[in-house]
Amino acid sequence: MADNSHGSPDTSVTVATPGQGGVDTFTNPGLPPHRPRLADTDPRAEKRAERQVALLFFISVLGTLLFFFAYFFIPLNDTIERLRMQNLALGLGTAFAMLGIGVGIVHWAKTLMPDHELTEERHAVTDEKDRAEAEQIVGTILDESGIKRRPLIRNTLIGAALLAPLPAIAIFRDLGPLPGNSLKHTFWDAGMRLTRDPSGTPIKASDVTVGSAFHVIPEGLNEAENKLEEKAKAVVLLMRLDPESLNPSEGREDWGYDGIVAYSKICTHVGCPVALYEQQTHHLLCPCHQSTFDLEQECKVIFGPAARPLPQLPIDVDDEGYLIATSDFQEPVGPSFWERG
Amino acid sequence: MSSSSAINAYQPKTRVGRVTNFVDSRVGGSGMVKEFGRKIFPDHWTFMFGEVALYSFVILLISGTFLTFFFDPSMAETHYEGSYLPLRGVEMSVAYASSLDISFDVRGGLFMRQVHHWSALLFVAANAVHMLRVFFTGAFRRPRELNWVVGTSLLIMGLAAGFTGYSLPDDLLSGNGLRIIDGVVKSIPVVGTYISFFLFGGEFPGTAIIGRLYVLHILLIPAVILLLIGIHLFMVVIHKHTQYPGPGRTNTNVVGYPVGPVYAAKAGGFFFIVFGIIAAISAAFTINPIWNYGPYDPSPVSAGTQPDWYIGWVDGALRLMPGTLGPNFDFEFNIPFPWGVNTLSLNVLFPALVPAGIVFTLMLAWPWIESWVTKDKREHHLLDRPRNAPTRTGVGVAGVVFYCTMWAAASSDLIATHFLVSLNDVTYWLRILVVVGPIIGFMIARRVALALQRKDREIALHGRETGRIVRLPHGEFIEVHEPVDDYKRYQLVSFESPEAYAPVADANGHVSRSEKLRSRASRFFFEDRVAPVTPSELHASHAGHHGEIADAQDRESIASH
Asked: Where does the record place the Cytochrome b/b6 N-terminal region profile domain (chain B) (predicted)?
């Protein structure tokens, strides 16, 4: 392949030299001659095209009829199959009704309407004389208003105009309550039983075999007033591992019970439920953005966009052998926020 | 100025004339018909994407209005009693229950829901492809820069419309989408928590968000989109449409078909075609089967969930950002202030804002960036073929690669499960690709554009390769080239190829730093330029180029062999 960027103008494949864009250019040969279509020259082809267009419009009529048939004569009977059938018929009816008209008109335009390309001159968007006049008019308006000569008026107006919209912002204050401390506490409390999600039945420590995992909500959550809001913070994953494989840090040795540990199910990234438990590797995986937490390292982040371990819920068993929380979470659960600290 | 004789001066003779007379003498309108009736519109298949966007918006308005008659945006608790058996008796919000009713108990409701969803996907897609067309052909140049800005705003509003609508059914999938939005909002420094509480009317999920999104979705955002579309089309009329270069087309004329009847028929017919295609898709392909997901509950989530395609790139960016680097560093910073410790969560904030910020800022600024580099402030009504603006084409492709890598990242889990590869490896590779990919894409696209330009030069100079090998009497083999005609050649040579320039000193003989920068940018843009063939080059090539068939006589003598 020839080098077109560094050649000399004497060889035919070179780049242009300065000035080449000026005089030495091809002249515009004008529009190519019009090539007649079949329908322009052959009356039979013209007639045929006419019939095709009419046929397409007729297909549209059939489509509309199909829609009415589906609407009135395919009754729904509580099965998905029937619904699908009706949807298909309604949709195809509409599709034929629309495509018949659309394709028909376009076919008409392409075969039977004149296809001579026409040329029109462009005009400047505006007249430059107008621009000067407009400038002058605006100048006159400003002068007559005196806004430039009376800075007191101008400045007080600017001040007032800046201030006046503020109520329009302030009035939205009641869209919601202030956060307060609400993000730092959950429904959990000392002595509260761990129960199954969603049934709310309590869990015995002996039910939790090694390798199993439970989706957990606090006792009484289902009856709570703000059930969904509380649940959005309080859901917990419960797993039992070989106690040897857990490596609790100092002060957290008694947060689990005989290899059973409970962690917040709300991802510390943006709050999706960390719903996947990889039994073999002891990893928790968030299906939304794939943050991976290692149970053997107190749910430290080992992959993905989360930056913080899942908070652990300290648990124990009560006299009847049911699992209970010994306190609320010791840190805010879920995604980070400015006031988290 | 009016008198009875003036009113009666025009005597309509046809029925059309009588209608015209009635309308025009009361409200005017003949001027408009005069202006638009035979206005010329250039025709090209790539000009169709904007139309697709416009028509899918009209279909959105039609189907959306139907849906509002049945949808109830309330988050009050209810028990489902409709005809979908698996969910009967399940506790859910009224919004979700009414979405189910639309699907199962309103005849044609499911069809309308699917039409609405499919046309929303198409609306954003057509917007995006239309903008790509405008970018790659340079249609954003003066005088159309402001319309490019309006178009970009339309795209952003389209995303907003899509996301607010996506959340309305209050099913599990969209609820988790909202949860992600809540997490992102909370990562905003200082005001994030407050915005979240004001948006949701308290703690997530609350009972306010669906109603609020509904008002945005059916009132505010469509109104803004309509207004922007009005401005957009108004400007198209003012500027007249651009056209591709070619024989007969100049920067000062418009070549095409008159609005009436050809263009109006094609464009009007095309509306029905778009509607028909959306109807066919909605008939045959299920979209967003909300009954499979169940009502929103903060605890469950289904694996392999995907957002609607246009939100994918932001979700992908969230996935690609590493939260930690090594065992001892993470992107969440606890900053001690005199009043206490505050948390800055860059692992969320950065991917949510920066990639979208880069893309939209560059998009909005590009018309001015380019005209600053080229010093080209002229009006352009002739489009560039993408190959004739290699650097711009490269930049566009880089943007597309950047976007698509993030979009692919939103499906990293599905890529891993479908191709049986490690999810972690997919993420690592995409992290590399999101940085390196745009650079490679830029280089390849620019090289391809330059290569195509060179090919154009060859064709313009030597004609088309016919594949016919001919042996001359003295034993030499040549391939016969068939020269192109004047029209075809003009298409190949009628483009501008700006040159890199040296920095220019100002009046004091001082070369400013910005001028130096501009000259460097200009070198980057145009150093490797390929110039259009000139008549003298063509002449020279015909006269003296060895191996060519020098004149018509020779050609004929060979052809007769």
From this structure: 19-245
Q: Give pLDDT, residue B335.
A: 93
ipTM for the complex?
A: 0.89
Which residues, at least 6 apart from B395, have a Cβ–Cβ distance to it below 8 Å?
Answer: B366, B442
Report chain A's C-alpha Rg in angstroms: 38
Q: CA-CA distance, B129 to B53, in Å (whole number)?
A: 9
Nearest to B319 by CA among B210, B223, B431, B213: B431
Q: Give the separation between CA B142 and CA A196, rounded to whole angstroms.
A: 65
Mean pLDDT value across residues A145-167: 94
The residue among B390, B370, B391, B365 whose CA lies nearest residue B380 is B370
Three-class SS of residue A66?
A: helix
Position B557 scores a pLDDT of 47
Q: Could you read off the pLDDT of B484-528 as tens digits, one per residue?
A: 999 999 999 999 888 888 888 888 888 889 999 999 999 999 988
CA atoms within 13 A on the CB side of B426: 22
Q: What ranges do the domains of chain A cover?
A: 38-111, 183-340
| Neighboring chain A residues of B206 at a CB cutoff of 8 Å | 176, 229
Q: What is the pLDDT of residue B345?
A: 94
Q: Judge contact between B500 and B516, C-beta under 8 A.
A: no
Quote the tokens at residue B463: 């004609």
Q: What are phi and psi of A216, to 5 degrees?
A: -125, 140
Asked if B409 has any chain A CB less than 8 Å from its own CB, the reply is no
Q: Where do the domains of chain B lie?
A: 4-33, 37-299
The minimum CA-CA distance between A303 and chain B, rounded to whole Å, is 7
CB-based contacts of A20: which residues, under 8 Å, 6+ apart?
A: A9, B531, B534
Rounded to the nearest 10°, the torsion over CA A67, A69, A74, A80 is -20
CA distance B260 to chain A (A): 10
Measured distance CA(B87)–CA(B68) in Å, rounded: 23
* CATH number among 2.40.30.20, 3.40.30.120, 2.102.10.10, 3.90.1530.10, domain A183-340: 2.102.10.10
CA B436 vs CA B71, B316, B393, B405, B440: distances in Å: 46, 16, 17, 10, 6
Residue of A nearest to B540 (CA): A12
Task: Give the Cα separation of A92 and B273 in Å (integer).
Answer: 13
Residue for token pair 């420590």:
A205
Q: What is the pTM of this model?
A: 0.91
Q: Do B194 and A289 touch (CB under 8 A)?
A: no
Residues of B in contact with A83 (CB under 8 A): 103-104, 110
Which tokens in the block code for residue A10?
Answer: 């004497």
- The C-alpha atoms of residue B88 and residue B81 are separated, in whole angstroms, by 5
* Chain B residues closer than 8 Å to A109 by CB: 261-262, 265-266, 269
